[in-house]
Design a protein that fits this description.
about 230 residues; Fumarylacetoacetate hydrolase, domain 2; 18 strands
Length: about 230
């Protein structure tokens, strides 16, 4: 193939206990999917159906092992961590019924949806898109994927993040308003899912700011934890 310019790089994630890697296609994020977090953001979770926003593939930062670094992004003074259970899609499909949705999941990982909170909230309050607050490069550190064949489907267990050893977010994935299966089914009504798609399933309460030099440790019970340091721009 003769391209006019060099094609974009392929972004990928490690797969636990494997030399193979998982290519990232698109990153879908479920908004306000824990009730307590929805309330801390000033919204009523009991009145909302799931909604989604997206991050670009170049938001991916493989947190494969040891300490991974991400830059403190420009144009923000309020850079927040959001710990998430990540589901990755191995089989595509549209209009997927809930009872078959988990058949499309290749595996699970720990992720952080890093957010320019000041930019996001300003956009939200003005009725504008969230893109500059959410959808920027290196805003999604994600750990190694544990295959469903190895860990099964995760429906409960601790989800937490600490910063410099101090606890910040600490909850349980059983508190998801919309389960992984429900999120997949609902999303597939609007957009056919494709192999390589990544779904960040939402964050619990306790989101807060980090600054350059801070070290976050994110974990979901049963999965490989991640360690991410924020470096200066």
């Amino acid at each position: 193939m003769n391209y006019a310019i060099d094609p974009a790089p392929v972004y990928s994630l490690a797969i636990a206990n494997s030399d193979a890697r998982f290519p990232v296609n698109r990153i879908f994020c479920v908004g306000r999917n824990y009730a307590a977090h929805a309330r801390e953001m000033g919204r009523d979770p009991d009145r909302e159906k799931p909604f989604f926003f997206m991050k670009p593939a170049n938001a991916t930062v493989p947190a494969d092992g040891g300490e991974t670094t991400i830059p403190y992004p420009p144009k923000t003074a309020n850079f927040h961590h959001e710990i998430e259970l990540v589901a990755v899609i191995g089989k595509g499909g549209a209009d997927i019924p809930v009872e078959r949705a988990l058949e499309h999941v290749f595996g699970y990982a720990v992720g952080l949806d890093m957010t320019r909170r000041d930019i996001q909230l300003e956009a939200r309050d003005k009725g504008r898109p969230w893109e500059f607050g959410k959808s920027f490069a290196k805003s999604a550190p994600i750990g190694p994927i544990s295959r469903v064949a190895d860990v099964g489907h995760l429906t409960e267990g601790r989800i937490a993040v600490s910063v410099n050893g101090a606890p910040r977010q600490d909850s349980d994935i059983s508190k998801l308003i919309w389960s992984v299966a429900e999120s997949i089914a609902y999303l597939s009504e609007y957009e056919a899912l494709e192999p390589g798609d990544v779904i960040m399933t939402g964050t619990p309460e306790g989101v807060n700011a980090v600054v350059a030099g801070d070290v976050m440790i994110g974990e979901v019970a049963g999965l490989t934890p991640i360690t991410v340091r924020v470096r200066g721009a």
